[in-house]
Each structure stands twice: as structure tokens, then as C-alpha cells.
Amino acid sequence: MKLDRWTRLAALTLAALTVLFSGCTTYVASRVTAFSDWNGSDATRTYAFTRTAGEQNNLEQTTYERIVADELATNAFRHVDPAAAHYLVGLTYSTHADTVTVAQPVYYNPWPGPYWGRPYDPWGPFGPPFPAGYVNQSYPVSVHTLGIRITERATGKEVYNVTARTGGDEPSLVRAMPYLARSALADFPLANGTVRTVKIPVDKNDGRSNEVAGAPAAATPAAASAPRVVQ
Hints:
The protein has helices at 5-20, 59-73, 173-185, and strands at 27-36, 46-49, 78-79, 87-108, 130-152, 158-168, 194-201, 228-230. It is of the alpha+beta class. The radius of gyration is 22 Å and the shape is elongated.
């Protein structure tokens, strides 16, 4: 899957920030884009996952469906047999390697000397050294994407389509998936054409809203750190 120019730019910008602050990162940032024609009620929020022929009997697909099911459950969705489902939920996902370039400052000390003024202060009373300029540093990054498409089973009408993307030095899609799923479905349903950045704190839940991994879709969600939204 090829990303268009603006999508790729947004993903690499997120990746640049992740790499730049990788030493102190306490959250995972995802860029979320949603298209919506949603008018369903809680009473009709029954769904089943739909798969392509190539996704049948696919363990990776099953793993991601369980993660998304946990997040759907926090929005009053109930997983049922396909024949009884009001909605069909389809997933798309991808990961690819890329390179991001970050401009970093190069410092110099205009007042050389081992110590100035205060003890153990190598920069003296004038503070830290000044940036002499900037140098471009390139880093390998992994860009992960999750798409969730909801259609009405009876009519085939698409009612919700949301995509979440994140990038950084984590190469594993399976480890990024809980953050992508939670970001994509936070504040469901979003208004049509919404584009925003969602930051999920890194905690013991590994990005999940539920503490129990692989909990049934109807399980009661446990408390978790709230996502932070940056428009």
C-alpha cells in the first residue's frame, strides 16, 4: 500500500517527533482520519468481522480482530454471529520501513575552560553553550497503519471509515496495534472529515483500554489512562 504525499508527510512528522524524544517518550502518537455517516443507536451496535478470501484462517488477522474488539466493546458494540449482526467490520493494516531526517543543533562553548564561577559548573555564569548551527541526522523508522471500515450488513452502506497511523523505532506491528486501535476508536463516532493526533500513554496495559488481553468483546472495560487529543 502506497501512502499519498500528505499522508506520508504526516506519518514521517510523527515518526520524527518519536525518534527525537525516544529517550523520554511516555506516549504513542497516532494521526487519525475519520469519515462518518453514523446515526446508529446503542441498541443496533451488533457486529461481526468480515474477511477477504486471503484472510481466512489467518492467525495474525484473528489477533488484530481481538484487539479491535476490545476497543469496540468500550463503545457499546457487541460481537455476534454474522447472521445476527447489524454491522460488518473490516480491517486493513500495513507496516513499512522508512527514513526520517531530523535537524539537530550543534553546540559550542564561547567561554572555554573547565570551570567558571560556581563549583561543578563547566559553563560558568553565562549558562550553557550556544548552538553553532544544525546538522541533519537520518534515522530508520517503521510506519504502522490500521484502517477500520464499518458497513451496514443489510445494505452494504459504509457508515464509518477511520484510519490511524503511527511511526517510530518500534518495528513490530503487533506491538503497535493496541495503540492504533485505541486511537482510531477514541471518542467514537468522530465527525465526518476529522483529522487529529491522539496520544496514548505508555502504561501496563500496552495501549489497551482493557487490562485483560484478549477479553471478549462484551467484557466490561477496566479503567485506563485517557487518550490525549491534539487537533
